[in-house]
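Comment thread on ticket #2218

A.B. wrote:
> Attaching the input chain for the structure job we discussed in standup.
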Amino acid sequence: MDFLNNFLGPVSNATMNITSLFVVFGVAYALAGHYHATQLYAGGIALSAFVMLLPITNTKAGAFIDINLLGSKGMFVALITGIFATIIYSKLENANITIKMPESVPPAIAQSFIAVIPGAASLLTFTLIRFLFTFTQWGNAFDFIYDVLQVPIQGLGATLPATLVVLFFSQFLWWFGIHGTLLVNSVVSPIYAALDIQNYNAYQAGKSIPHIICSTFAGSFETSGMILGISLAGLYIAHSARLKHTMELTSVPSIFNISEPMTFGVPMVLNPTIFIPWIVVPLIMTTISYFAFATGWYHTRPVRLLFGPHQLFCKAG
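C.D. wrote:
> Ran it. Output below, let me know if you need it in another format.
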């Protein structure tokens, strides 16, 4: 395991764990094309603005950036930064508020001077935002976004409405190509972990299991059935040969609740025909499952489920 971690660990750090860097540059590059601005410079400026917002930890050993902020936790900041940094840059460039060089200057050099004023304005805006956040209770934009998402969800508690809100945001983000499960779980995992412990303590004491909503419920009843159902249905009723072949590849991962091959293979991402069922069906499945437990339709008794190295408990039939 040490060898695998040392050998393969850098792969995830260089790909999934820096997704926000790709996002901020990609959003800026595409948006600058929409505004007919210089795309490469706009992407570079947005990337610099994003890095500028990152909180830096200074120690005796040096200065460090938490790599988690470059992954899913920084996704919202990356999207917002990519959009607004590019708008500022593009508006100024299109308004010809730039440094104009004589015609004798080579075009490549002259083009780089065009980006100076728009880029400086964009970076100045974001360094001001970074500086203002130092006077707040959050200290930086990343913690602010995290708390804005976390506090409302925590306030709802372990209720069906809270679960549906969490699931809605997860599916909504997935449709845009953002790993919604990973992002939302960074907020709700502490809540579910506390509920798991309460269920475990009740089981150990021989008492009734208090919570329907817990990690086991979320993992078993929210989306896993939908993903597997789509795979199996696609194998038998799909008219498209491409879709049938895709389902052959995704059916086995779907058994293990791995949805990425289907999400990006069908694809679900940015597919307008699938948007409504992609969001609504998991909400319906979760609601039915919840009331099946709550009304006793499923016989309620403690069931020990082995989930990795931990034993999780919830009301199950």
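A.B. wrote:
> Thanks. Noting for the ticket: Confidence is low (pLDDT under 50) at residues 300-313.
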